[in-house]
Structures are given as C-alpha cells and as structure tokens.
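<instruction>
Derive structure tokens from the sequence
<data>
Labelled lines for chain and fold
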Amino acid sequence: MSKPTAVVCAYSSVGTAALEGLLEAGVEVRALYTYAQGPDELWFTPPAVLAAAQGIPVTKAPAFNEDGVYEAIRDLRPDFLFSFYFREMIQARFLELPRLGAYNLHGSLLPKYRGRAPINWVLVKGEPETGVTLHAMTPKPDDGFIVAQARLPIAWDETALSLTDKAAAAGRDLVRDAIPGLVDGSRSRIDQKTLGPSTYFGGRKPADSRLDFAMTAAEAFNQVRAVADPWPNAFLETPLGMAKVAWALPTAESCPQGQFRLSREGVVLGFSDGALRLHTLKVRGLRLERPSDQASTLRDLGLPEA
C-alpha cells in the first residue's frame, strides 16, 4: 500500500512539531510552504530545517495564494493539504485539490478563540485551560468540522513560551494519531456548532500589551505572562518614555495604585486592587534586574514613588 501524500503549509515551533507528527505517521510530504525566519524568531527550529533534513522541497513564497502556487500544488496531486500555524488564509480553490481533504491545526479549543494569536489571548484572558484542534478547512477562518482535539491545562504562571511548548508537543501527537483515521475515513467529525458559541480574536498589536494601572493585579500579570520573553513584552508608558516589563509576579505587598515602592524585597507596582513585584525591566535594550536600577528608571519616567 502506498503512503498517503501531503503538501504542508507551516511555520512556528508548533508547525515544526506537527510536521514531525505527519512524518511519524508515515505521510509522504511532497512540499513545504513556509516563511523565512525573522531575527527575533531564532528561539525555535523552523519547519524548513526539518523539511530540508528529510529531503522535502521547501518554498518560501511571499504570496501563497497566487496562481503559480496553485498550479504547483495541483500538479503534485496530494492526498492532503495541511496548514500548521500558517500566516495566510488559504483560498477556497486550494481546499478542493487534495483527495482526502484540507486540515488546519489551531492553537485553541475550537470554537473558542478562533483567529490570530490564540495562545497569547487565552493568557491575557486568564483562561484555566486551552488546547489544540485539528479541523477541516473552509473559506472561513477556523470554521470546519473537528477531527481531533486535545485539552491543555494552563498553570497559574504559564507563559506564552511554556504554553507554546505544550501546544507543540500536543500538536505532534494529535496529528500523528489522527492520520490513520483520516486515510481510511473512520475518523469521527464534530460540527463546531454543537460545541457552543464561538469567540474570535484578531492579531495582537503592540498597543495591546500596554499595562494600565486601572487593571487589577491579576489582569496586569496576565498581560505580562502573555508576552513574556521571547515575545516583545508588556510595557509601561508615560509622557516621559517607556519601559518593558519582561517579568513580574503578584505580591501580597501593598502599593498605591499608579505608584511604585522600593524596598529590600524589590520594586513593586500598584494596580487597582494589588501589586506586582518587578523581576526584570527592559529599557533601551538593557535588562535591569537590580531593584535600585529599576527604581531609578521608574523615577526617570515620572512615575510617583510611594
């Protein structure tokens, strides 16, 4: 019996892990479409590295949905088309090409958190769990029937990086285990409409990571962990400048809202109902972990000192 074949569109560490899952399942990947790795993304091994090591042709197409790409995939006659954390909505005409269907791996428990950056958004919203979902692609984002899903608990101090690592491991297993049932048609299909109302979140903008002292301490902490390193970080902004809060933790120590306090225990920032203790502050490319340096920076920003 010949191996099932696939064309894969993938990026990110989750995309690499999902591609591993396909290969472990015995799928012959005939082509990978992906992106060039940016200088701020060197913390993960991209799918192109794995594909090259396996002799899979790699294309970094600046515009996936163009006619030339469509014709190339049509000529490959794949059984499957997979999208693993790909950054473009794939046009409907592509979805009709694979004999056994087109499927997307999404980083949430669909139908919740459709759209972009679901791992960051579930942390911002303080969710206790999330997951990964393998579903059929339709012309609408994250809309088709579900063929596999795994739940992931979210620890109180989970970060975007630790949760991404969990999603990658779960995605690898989910894809690998789903392939036999997708090939022989035995895999069950769940209509998302039967799972309750959907929610949708768009891509995150830099301004979405701004810390506001009107937030509760929990909301501020959720903002910090949602974009902790290697993401660009939450930030404080005043008319005199900006400082990134790379890491901070909730504390029982009190501090007036909108102010900071320096003690031998460190620097704390006051929010609407509590405080965060600073661990790492970034200013002009420098990492500040010494409380005295952090306090000096906050004074320079004009933040009131309690």
DSSP finds eight helices and 15 strands in the chain. Helices lie at 12-24, 47-53, 67-76, 92-95, 118-124, 160-184, 217-226, 291-300. The radius of gyration is 22 Å.
